[in-house]
Amino acid sequence: MRPSGRQINEMRNVTIETNVTMHAEGSCLIKCGNTHVLCTATIDDRVPPFLKNSGLGWVTAEYGMLPRATNTRMRREAKEGQSGRTQEIQRLIGRSLRAGVDRVALGERQIIVDCDVIQADGGTRCASITGGWVALKLAVLKLMKTGQIISDPLVDPVAAISCGIYAGQEVLDLDYPEDSEAGVDGNFVMTGGRLVEVQMSAEGATFSRAQMDGLLGLAEKGVAELTALQLAAVR
Predict the structure, then answer these.
(1) Each residue's pLDDT expressed in tens, for the chain with a length of 235 residues
(2) Can you give the residue ranges of the Exoribonuclease phosphorolytic domain (predicted)?
(3) 118 occurs within a structural domain
(4) Residue 204 assigned ligand-binding role
(5) Of 27, 104, 136, 179, whose CB has the highest number of CB atoms within 10 Å?
(6) DSSP per residue over 92-111, as a string?
(7) Packing angle between helix 84-98 and helix 124-145, nearest 10 degrees?
(8) The domain that contains 36 carries what CATH number?
(9) What is the rounded radius of gyration, in angstroms, for the C-alpha atoms of the chain?
């Protein structure tokens, strides 16, 4: 039995509320159980210097956790500098979102996706990627509505889910009690039914090829459910 009482292939309840801020070109609040992340997308007509005059667009991301997103107060990173974990996660989010973008169709502009964790209960990077795509899509729709771009540069939705081996069982969508005790922990990022990135590690036990395949199967199920929610949110 999982601590939450869920079946091994059952995700937490996921909701995506869009247009939650006044000023951002795209925004959403994604809730994956008790993990809540605010995602905003900002359109910038300037691209990084290495892309100037290339005709290519760029998507990047920033990630952060509010001081009381967890059960004890964390230091505010804006004051003391980003941790290595934060830098790694925001690079992952940026890479993941770019995998679903036609950068020629986007044109020479940048979209910055900010993911701020309001409350953490496991899976914050996966929720950030999933919600980040929704915010990105809403920003792109505004570009299309105003005629700044002609075709949709977002080829496929990008979503992410965690899977792991908890108490000897392969389980979908780990919350914190499971994540902290999991023998194997994995994050799966997918777009259009194809893998973008897989992060897997043996936390307390090694795992077999068969177990890895089992976790991938669970991830495919979870991402399909998330993709349906993403598409419903941006209609």
Answers:
(1) 899 999 999 999 999 999 999 999 999 999 999 999 999 999 999 999 999 999 999 999 999 999 999 999 988 887 778 999 999 999 999 999 999 999 999 999 999 999 999 999 999 999 999 999 999 999 999 999 999 999 999 999 999 999 999 999 999 999 999 999 999 999 999 999 899 999 999 988 899 999 999 999 999 999 999 999 999 999 9
(2) 10-140, 156-221
(3) yes
(4) no
(5) 136
(6) HHHHHHHTTB-HHHH-S-EE
(7) 40
(8) 3.30.230.70
(9) 18
Give me the amino acid identity at 127: A
6 is in an annotated binding site: no
Residue 109 domain flag: yes
Q: What single-letter amino acid sits at 24? A: A
Residue 123 annotated as binding site: yes
Per the annotation, does 86 bind a ligand? no
- Domain coverage including residue 86: 14-234
Query: Distance (Å, rounded) from C-alpha 102 to C-alpha 111?
Result: 13
Whether 88 is in a domain gets the answer yes
- Structural tokens at position 162: 């965690």
Q: Which of 132, 96, 129 is nearest to 113 (CA)?
A: 132
Question: What is the amino acid identity at position 67?
Answer: P
- Between the CA of residue 44 and those of 48, 111, 209, what are the distances in Å? 10, 6, 44
Q: What is the pTM of this model?
A: 0.96
